[in-house]
Amino acid sequence: MNFLFVHPKYCSRGGFYHFNLGLAYVFSYMKHKGFNVSCLNLCHYDKPIDIQLAECITNEKIDVICTGGMSINFEEIHSILAAAKKIKPGIITIVGGAIVSSDPKLALENMPIDFGVIGEGEETMAELANVLSKGEDASNIKGLAYLDTKYNLVIPGERPPIEDLDSLPFPDLEGFEYGYHLNTFKPNSHLYYHTILDEVRVGKIITTRSCPFSCTFCYHQLGKKYRQRSLDNVFKEIDYLVEKFNINTLILLDELFAVDKKRIYEFAERIKKYNIKWNPVLRVDNVDRDLLKALRESGVYIISYGIENLNDEILQSMQKGITRIQVEKALQLTKEAGIGNQGGILFGDPAETEETVKKSIDWWLKHRRYGLTLGMIITLPDAPLYRLALERGLIRDKLQYMKNKFPLLNLTKISSKKFKKLCDFVSNYRDDEKYIVTGEVISSERQLDTCCGNSPSLLSKQYGKGLFTIKVKCPECAGMNEYRNMYYDLFGRFTKYFPVLCRNCNMLLWISTKEAFSKSYHFHNIITAVMKNVSFFLDRHPGAKFKLKKFMIRNTA
Length: 557
Fold this sequence. Notes:
This protein is α/β, with parallel strands linked by helices. It has four domains: 2-154, Cobalamin-binding domain (Rossmann fold, 3-Layer(aba) Sandwich); 185-431, TIM Barrel (Alpha-Beta Barrel), CATH 3.20.20; 440-488 and 498-513, no CATH class; 524-556. 36% of the residues lie in helices and 17% in strands. It contains 20 helices and 22 strands. A seven-stranded mixed β-sheet has the order 2-1-3-4-5-6-7, sandwiched between helices. Strands 8-11-12 form a three-stranded parallel β-sheet, covered by helices on one side. The chain is globular, with a radius of gyration of 24 Å.
């Protein structure tokens, strides 16, 4: 049988998206086991999904479609399955990821899925593929979910977690055209921590699976048992990323990189020779001055901390296992070490009150130098808070809630009116200088040359006059920063300020969009950007032309 792995379409060609590393892991495992597999990354093509799929299914004689992702990507995943079934009604569809693992019944009853894969997909998928290829019964495969002839959900059993993560082949990035993905990266493509370099080539790896903690807003789709790869195995993958893709930045996608300092110290020492920037995920109760110094010297420029709140009662309610004092100490030491912080304060816990909100915001305003962002808790399946929302009747239609991309729910002790006001503040605070640390734009020029050398760079060829060189002064260290290859993409990016990192002290700075991109900042560009993306919008929402008018109004206001 021929299996086609399809990466969902999250953007138009050349746009930024979060690469589905889990899908690449399963694809690689199938390839390693000798199955006939091919893959298609829809993010890299602008043909309508049904046409793109039809070409692959026909030309490669595909029997099985494999895809998956997060619950929030229901529409993107559903469009693949619906198109595949229309092109070839007898094709077998298999879906994995959190969208199935968190609620198999909801997914299978509302999407044209023949088999769902729960949890880690490598072994389950290989066993299923073997059975399908032989025409045998798949009803007893652990880790599988399907509907029987009476449309009852069947889950034969839970598959044990993969203990030896070193036994898994590295995710197959070449098949999903990861090189093209890197070639479209701009420093300000997504999130501020990529602005540390002018030419960004980001490698993403997973060195552990799951997490030993159980925060109430989290859902661990890979099970509850925390497992680590050996560092020898991890560095073999880093060698591959450096040699094949010439990466200069490494993002660790672990839920938690390490629980012991020995692992952190060893990793920091071994990565020095690569001379690359890297970003770990750590807990505030597991760092000290000496460790942070070692991390800084090894290339760490920013640390992702799971902070979430500054009130002990909220932290306890969240089951974070940390205290406000530990948070404050870690932030202070991190700042002193010259490392940036990628963390924030989340509002919306059931223990949240007007008083706790005020305390958090007051503290945040006094400590803006730490660069903490503000956010609201998103109630995702099948986190403890999601189950609480169901018990309280706040989610009456699980399918519609998922289709609506999980709108914010008031689980707090705050009135509905004041909760909405809080949501509005969190959504808009970045447009007000009172709440952010702004960098001073010294100059901004269209970029006609390259970052390195005299010949046009790949980005220059691709984006032309859309690239800018911006000089910014940091108010924290008074250092001057020159950011090159900064791309002005109005669509979805029409904000008053945008974030960057100071390259001297790693301070989070907010830059005036109008001052940074004054030569492109006008209404005509907004209209042009919206029109260019209309086809992409309609492709993601088949039959949704009636929504176009509201869409246009919202994006050109």
